[in-house]
Design brief:
This protein is an all-alpha fold. The protein has seven helices and no strands.
Length: about 190
């Protein structure tokens, strides 16, 4: 009879441990989803700023049509990647960031544009948004790291495998142009 109670006690402890690990994995997975949603919020803000920036710049940069089109096209492609994974979305966002950096670098050649209050306000908003996007990406990657660590360390990897928890995907820079500092020329 004592052996039965011991076996039931051990079983109860195991069940409680599995429940605790499972709940921890769910919390971490939800944290990753929340972090991804925060990136979406900041990207939406950037998408909304871009048409205003392009319209403000158009009047001054009549000869820079290719640069303006590159920004518009990159924005369109990035918006279509909403349901893509972190890697594909990161690549599209990298292209958009690169196009925006080229636009701002080209704008340096137009003194009247650089003095325009609308342009300066939009440029400041875009810079602020880019900083928020960077922070959101970092928070997302930190969340993915915690989640992946939990799904891969013993004994929680056993529970993760039993309940189908898969490793998260990091938001990484995939384009060489996004790794480079933008070149700004004042000549």
């Amino acid at each position: 009879m004592l052996g039965l109670w011991i076996a039931l006690g051990v079983l109860a402890v195991l069940v409680i441990a599995v429940i605790a690990v499972y709940n921890g994995l769910v919390r971490l997975r939800n944290e990753v989803k929340n972090a991804w949603a925060q990136i979406d919020v900041q990207l939406k803000r950037r998408y909304d700023l871009i048409p205003n920036l392009v319209e403000t710049v158009k009047g001054y940069m009549k000869h820079e049509r290719e640069t303006l089109e590159a920004v518009t096209n990159a924005r369109t492609i990035a918006q279509k990647m909403v349901d893509a994974g972190a890697q594909a979305r990161g690549k599209a966002e990298g292209e958009l960031t690169s196009a925006l950096m080229r636009l701002l670098a080209v704008a340096e050649a137009y003194p009247d544009l650089k003095a325009n209050q609308n342009f300066l306000a939009l440029q400041e908003e875009l810079t602020s948004t880019e900083n928020k996007i960077s922070f959101s990406r970092q928070f997302y990657n930190d969340s993915v790291l915690r989640y992946n660590n939990q799904t891969q360390v013993f004994p929680s990897n056993i529970v993760a495998g039993m309940f189908g928890f898969k490793a998260g995907e990091f938001f990484e820079v995939t384009t060489a142009t996004e790794r480079e500092a933008p070149k700004v020329s004042f000549s």
